[in-house]
Amino acid sequence: MARVLRRSAFTLVELLVVIAIVAVLIGLLLPAVQKVREAAARTQSRNNLKQQALAVRNFEATHDVTPPMFGQVRGGGPSGSIYFHLLPFLEQSAVHDLGADAARALPLAVLRHPSDRTQTPDGVFELPVAAPAWDGTAGTANPYPAWANSANTRWGLSSYAANWQVFGDRGARLAKLTDGLSNTIVFNEKYAVATRPSGTPRVGATLWGYGVDPRTIPGDFTPAPAAGEYPGDAQWANGLAPTSLYVNGYWPRSAFVNRGGPAAGSWNFPAPWMCRCMVRPEFAPPPDNAHCLKSQSISPAGIHLALADGSVRFVGSGVTDPAWSAGETPADGEAIGPE
Predict the structure, then answer these.
(1) Which uninterrupted H or E stretch holds 283?
(2) Among 99, 204, 223, 257, which is disulfide-ready with 277 (CB 3.0 to 4.6 Å)?
(3) Contact criterion met (CB below 8 Å) for 296 and 281
(4) Is the pLDDT confidence value at 261 over 90?
């Protein structure tokens, strides 16, 4: 008598149960995976900032001064941005050897935050010759400094910015940061690209190779510095022409704003602005509503920054304007508080 072989198979109910179990497991695993990714991104950002801070210290040990935001070191040699001058100390000597104009088109891993949602896939920003005007008027303006070949519109992006109040136009001696190295911010996180519906400027990007030597644009200052001279207190007290390349939103800097004169009536500091931005960062704002002259955190919980002593710190989103300003100013007598 022949036996009938019956093929075992899942019933529809059993299949649905298996699918439901798999879905539950995926739902449990995804948050854990996301947390691991976020933790890895935070670690990478701290490492990036640590490398930048140590590069500044090593640069100063070699040259007896830090790089300026943009210009020459000690008034001589090749001109370039702070990050351009730091390239040999970030293990990027080959990029530095290309020169400032060719190098600025390349992305740098040490300047990319893995979770910066404003970064482009290739880490490069296309800067048009006719960019949106940054002086509050309608129309366009040419953002290209004289040293940059406008035929090459590619600029490497950065998720970090350097503190203008520390590095300025001439560089700094770390020993003269009288607020203390552990109380002075040198680098912090910042969106690679920032736009907003209105405001001056409305559009910007953190281009690591961007900048202009102020000695080449004396007419943008009031009063105009003497030929070959850097601007000083007399100029910063008045701010700059709103059309100046010095004030647009493409520099890799923080702690600058085009405002001189006395403090605003609502401001609680007696000191004049002197082009110092004295307000805290924006914490993970929408990329289409971010101020390109301000810093932005990548995480809504807080922002990573590097201090002049080479340490890296996480500052929570509850930090106040005065506390943040205390960290940005290098010699005003303040100390960073527990915030």
Answers:
(1) strand 282-283
(2) 257
(3) yes
(4) no
With a CB cutoff of 8 Å and minimum separation 6, the contacts of 212 are 70, 145, 146, 147, 245, 246
User: Average pLDDT of 174-187?
Assistant: 94
Domain spans of the chain, in order of start? 15-328
Residue type, 222: T
Specify the pLDDT at position 170: 96
Tokens of 295: 């810093």
Q: How far apart are CA 140 and CA 135, in angstroms?
A: 10
What gap in Å lies between CA 324 and CA 335, rounded to an integer? Answer: 10
Cα pseudo-dihedral 95, 101, 106, 110, rounded to 10: 60
C-alpha angle with apex 167: 162 to 168, nearest 5 degrees?
110
Do 311 and 185 meet the contact criterion of CB atoms below 8 Å apart? no
Give the contacts of 194 (CB within 8 A, at least 6 positions apart).
118, 203, 204, 205, 206, 249, 287, 290, 291, 292, 296
